[in-house]
Amino acid sequence: MKKTLLATAIAGALGASAAAQAATVYDQDGTQLIVNGRIAMGIAGGGPEEVRNGQAEDNGAEFVDVYSRLGISMSHQINSDLKAFGRVEWRFTGDERNTANGFNEVRHSYIGLESASFGTVMAGNYDSFYNSHVAAPFDVYIDQGLNLTEGVGGGYQARGDSVGYITPNLSGFQAFLSAKHYSERGETNAEIETNGDDEIVTQGGVKYETGPLRLALGYVDDEDGRAGGSGEVLYGATASYAFTDNFSARLGYETRDSNDAALEAGGDAEDFDGFDTWGLGMTYAMGQWAFNADVYNVSVDNEDADNGWDDRTAWAAGAYYKVSSNFDVFLELYQGDQPDIDVSVTDPDVDVADGDDMYWLTGARYHF
């Protein structure tokens, strides 16, 4: 999925490195095979303390892998208008947490057909269409602060058992629709009773791009039960504008109703409560440098500060420097503005999980 207009500036400084350095293994008679990936290492620290077994976990600094991955893209030009394509991508964790296991996630594995006249159809394990087309203007961070709700990412009711369609570009307009199937196959009646019935959840929307302006509107059927969602539909809209080749700004809004039945049954507010979120951000690139800054205002329907759910104003910022076409370094900051969480422990010195610590990540990436 291509990056949006909003990310153009930072892609020029950093993201284009990966595409430029991808290795074309085979390119003959309309058939192409490309290998690409990255190895990324960093140090992360801070962020809201998680609660486990009634106590707050430490959130000190740690050496981490930063989403290293290896991918293979393939395509075949069937005729002047129709192309078949496929991609598989693995994620591996290159630190001590996974050195004995190799790859730990198949991030992408899909095939499809692309036609300039009829559009694109694809099936398999691919990113959320909502994230790729609607929330994408805010997807300019390596780690935290990717999007408006700070939780909607590439896997949001997507990746695996999915079929999608994207219309051709009609004078700047495109529509998109994807469906994911959660199946009962291979389960016993007892397991189905526990996990829920099979479900098909959809997401889709429209976008419009002309010159420096990009607009997008979409939804995700965040079904409860087997799909594990909130049981309510998420709606979102984003607008982005490139004022110059170096500076672009973005505005976004997301909303979701409360699942009152789930809340009354004892469900966590974070999972089932409604919210309204506004996001405002910018990207600026200058030479080998690129910078991001975003602020999010989150208004929730039912505040539950004791359990970490409250109105808040979060922000994210990042600085990136391209050392070479293959190598870049970065620093990202994220302040979630989460309330502290009371925890029940016997030690009076450890009775609160600090939700207001700033998360930071710094490191380097080598693209190939």
UniProtKB/TrEMBL annotation:
It is a multi-pass membrane protein. It is found in: Cell outer membrane. It comes from the Bacteria. Coiled coil: none annotated. Residues 8-337 form the Porin domain. Pfam families: Porin_4 (PF13609). InterPro entries: Gram-neg_bact_OMP, Gram_neg_porin_domain, Porin_dom_sf. Residues 1-22 form the signal peptide. Gene3D superfamilies: Porin. SUPFAM superfamilies: Porins. Keywords: Cell outer membrane, Ion transport, Membrane, Porin, Signal, Transmembrane, Transmembrane beta strand, Transport. PANTHER family: MAJOR OUTER MEMBRANE PROTEIN P.IA (PTHR34501:SF9), PROTEIN YDDL-RELATED (PTHR34501). Homotrimer. This is Porin. It comes from Billgrantia antri.
